[in-house]
């Protein structure tokens, strides 16, 4: 029986809630603890790095637990509901640090709660995506549902990016700490309600196996597939570069661009950037593909991103009066990020056939599990770099909101947001150009050889 409209909407709502929570934590936990609560930036960087890496290693373990689950409600929905409830509670605690805590006590609290947040998020995230084969018929239906869910996830991320700062200001009435607590409660409740709707509306129609490769299997497949290695290294460098900027952009608007309306300008900037990123994936990428190969589009995207960062750096050293000038570099950076996120997934898929031809083993599930690992690793690296920059620049709540146009702390922030990403992207493009050999013609040749080996026409 085909999926009903109710099932599709319910599953999409779950994706909205899930990525609202992820984006809220990923984008604002550093700002909340470092800037509002005064925790050492270096301490937060270490916590975020360690927790993200631990979370990445935790994914395969959670996959095994889900695979071994057998209940009358299915194997996925119990974990999805329990994980969501726990994660919603932990999310609230993450942004509701007790006022009595300070110093080492607050650092310990942040470390424990953030690691728990990662564990409980993985508890619901893996069954959410893994359950698709259990209630779809496969083929086009499965592909369409996956596309719908990814799009809804993007909507959830965009909502948080756009409204958080303004909602926190309104809810806290000038008290950011209180505002984050109230907003975290609202997000947590919405998250649980959306996933509850998913669990009630979706019925598992078949039993499917969850492939959960170990960390050892992931690294073994990576080391034996030089093309997968090339793509993975590129993903880490690209995402680390982009995430450094996304971690620091709120500090730029608050302490550098400044002004009484910095929250409105920050929201406007993120709204424009998010829209451009989505449009680039949906419209610009297909347009460019009409005229050039995927690898050429890849290089064009690198040029766009680097040019965007260069323009951003120049604009930072003039007396900016209007946020709209920042839309120029934002267009190139966000558009490039959207296209690169699509292409790295495509290139990673290309390495599967290559690995099968080279090693006589198809590591499809292992390679794609690796994508989650490296994205989380990049996120941890970026958080650590951003934290070190904040520590060296001495940017915190006691910094005046309107800084002079040129100052040591401001210059450091600007350089970290632009020059480090440029260097990271340049290393990525040169490494990729040297190592990656899977052109479209080569991919077709490999696919033909794989089919021939299997005895297919």
Description of the structure:
The protein is mostly helical and 457 residues long. It is 81% helix and 0% strand. The protein has 15 helices and no strands. It has helices at 5-36, 41-67, 77-94, 103-130, 132-135, 139-172, 176-201, 215-224, 226-257, 262-289, 294-316, 327-359, 364-393, 408-435, 440-454. Helix 9 runs antiparallel to helix 10, helix 12 (327-359) packs antiparallel against helix 13 and helix 13 (364-393) runs antiparallel to helix 14 (408-435). The chain starts with a helix and ends with a helix. The relative contact order is 0.13.
Total strand segments = 0
Main sheet properties: none
How large, in whole angstroms, is the Cα Rg? 22 Å
Structural class category? mainly alpha
* Tally of contiguous helical segments: 15
Percent range for helical residues?
Answer: over 70%
Distance between the termini: 32 Å
Low-confidence stretches: 398-406
Strand content: under 5%
Summarize the helix and strand pattern as letters.
HHHHHHHHHHHHHHH
Mean pLDDT over all positions: 83
Shape: globular
In short:
The protein has helices spanning 5-36, 41-67, 77-94, 103-130, 132-135, 139-172, 176-201, 215-224, 226-257, 262-289, 294-316, 327-359, 364-393, 408-435, 440-454. The chain has 457 residues and is mainly alpha-helical.
